[in-house]
Amino acid sequence: MPTRIYRTPVRRATAAPRRPDWLTRRARAARVRFDRQPQALMLLEIAAVIGLLALLYLSQVATLTATHQTLLREQARQTELRRQDADLHAELGRLQSPAYVEQRARALGMVPADPASVVWIALHDAGR
């Protein structure tokens, strides 16, 4: 018995859809304009793009530098305010010390009260 060979049918490639003539003409015209463009103009355009990117970069750097300077000023101000706060707390502690209060009272002519001469008045809270 002979061996059978099976073949799959070969499909022919379909042609790609053709572009309309007006589109082809426009594409050719654009290509001709691009080919005729002088190299100097292309370099000028590239330089302009690079210049704009450099300008954008420098703008960002300037903004960052200004923000950093502001941050440094505010940190210096914060340090100064903390120092003033510590000084004021130390002054408050000195003014509230019993030794200072007694010294100041004596300077104003006050004398310590005699415990025997102190009069106590009892107030009643009338039902409250």
Number of strands: 0
The amount of helix comes to: 55-70%
**What characterizes the major β-sheet?**
none
Q: Helix-strand pattern, N to C?
A: HHH
Distance N to C terminus:
126 Å
Q: What is the oligomer described by this structure?
A: single chain
Strand content: under 5%
Structural class: mainly alpha
Rg, nearest Å? 48 Å
Low-confidence stretches: none
Average pLDDT, all residues: 85
Number of helices: 3
Shape: elongated
Describe this structure in words.
- This protein is mainly α and 128 residues long.
- The chain has a domain at 38-109.
- It contains 3 helices and no strands.
What is the topological layout?
Elements: H1 21-36, H2 39-96, H3 98-107
Describe this protein with a few key phrases:
128 residues; mainly alpha
Give a concise summary.
Helix content is 66%, strand content 0%.
